[in-house]
Amino acid sequence: MDNALEVLKKRRFIKQITDEEAVREELSRPGSSCYVGLDPTADSLHVGSLLPIMALMQLQRCHNKPICIVGGGTAMVGDPSGKTEMRKMLSRETIERNAEKIRAQVARYLDTGEQECVFLNNAEWLTELNYIEFLRDFGRHFSVNRMLAAESYRMRMETGLSFIEFNYQLLQAYDFLHLYKNYGCRIQMGGDDQWGNIVAGTDLIRRVEGGEAEGMTWPLLETASGEKMGKTAQGAVWLDAEKTSPYDFYQYWINVDDRDVERFLGLFTFVPMEEIGELCRESGAAIRKAKRRLAVEATRISHGERAALEARQASEALFVAGDSDVKGAPSSPCPASRLDKGWPLLDAMVETGLAQSKGAARRLVRGGGAYVNEERVLDELRILSRDDVEEGRILLRSGKKAFHRVDVIEGGTG
Predict the structure, then answer these.
(1) Is residue 208 within 8 Å of 138, Cβ to Cβ?
(2) What is the pTM assigned to this prediction?
């Protein structure tokens, strides 16, 4: 069986690592653990958060034990990493509610038996700390000069770094110490912007326990065009099917830049690397096959076999056959009475998620990118009515690939 480190390296997860040989040796022991932290600042994770989840899944497939920490405690402080301004402070109740939803969400991806995976919320131990004792026992091990040299703090010095955020590195380091002492965890993984926090944890373990611990990071994900991973014109691509339907999730993957397909297949699927090389050997029209494989596999992992199949069928029916009557396509109901009153197209584009605002919808129409029942609309004052209903529905489209089916309900009130 492959060592988990070798798998992660082959699939391009690794950016930095404290001691490669030490990590390889630790992961060679079945049941050895590695932890990842997830931030509960929303009630769902998004596509960018799939990277740590996939890393944990790869570890589990190599018979290592993932430890997943939901940061219910650290979220009360706010991680300054990668931020130019202080994060919005959430109430404890909101953080706890988000943490529970994220825990349930991640549990869909991992084998969750007691011997297979550990789920924890760091609020369990961080909220019980005595601040004075914490500063005396652990704060003395941190150098302010070294902390300010970290990228996450240095980039904030110009815009202002709050004292509460300055504590974040101490708390994350303490998390690692807690897991080392109570769960025998000797490895932490995170995004490359977490390198300073991870190394602070390994240093704290050495100073307090005289122990050895390691860390590794993955690259911060951007698309080939330089955009942040998981962002679209319609907003974030969520893992929650209520926020981003399996169909829209599938569309995100099948529409990625050709230059990203091989990398994303390695990171976000379990397709063997040799097969990925074969799929991505050719360019042009042939890369469509690789994109389809990426979309199917990524959707299957997040939403299951049936949802992936339906999303693929819906996509192919819409884009190949032009058939709007397909199961799985994004849709929403509309009472017929609303059409009797007249429904402005700009409002419809916003309400169906095809545009983020009326201004964006207006620009879409002016640019020739808005369609009703496959007919381009150039009039930004266009009103939808019963005359637009075809076989009980209206098909809206934004650009070449974003569709939404409006199902008209007779007898409804608007």
Answers:
(1) yes
(2) 0.77
Are 408 and 393 in contact, with CB atoms under 8 Å apart? Answer: yes
Whether the Cβ atoms of residue 45 and residue 107 lie closer than 8 Å to each other: no
Distance set, CA 272 to CA 10, 44, 107, 368 (Å): 10, 29, 24, 42
DSSP one-letter code for 264: H
Give the whole-angstrom CA distance, residue 166 versus residue 363. 43
Closest CA to 142 of 190, 208, 74: 208
Among candidate residues 134, 132, 133, 153, the one with its CA nearest the CA of residue 144: 153
User: What is residue 233's predicted lDDT score, i.e. its pLDDT?
Assistant: 59
Residue 227 is inside which H or E element, if any? none
pLDDT at 77: 79
| H helix intervals, 342-377 | 345-351, 358-366
Residue-range domains of the chain with CATH: 4-218 (3.40.50.620), 231-321 (1.10.240.10), 331-409 (3.10.290.10)
Q: Which strand (E) or helix (H) includes residue 6?
A: helix 4-10
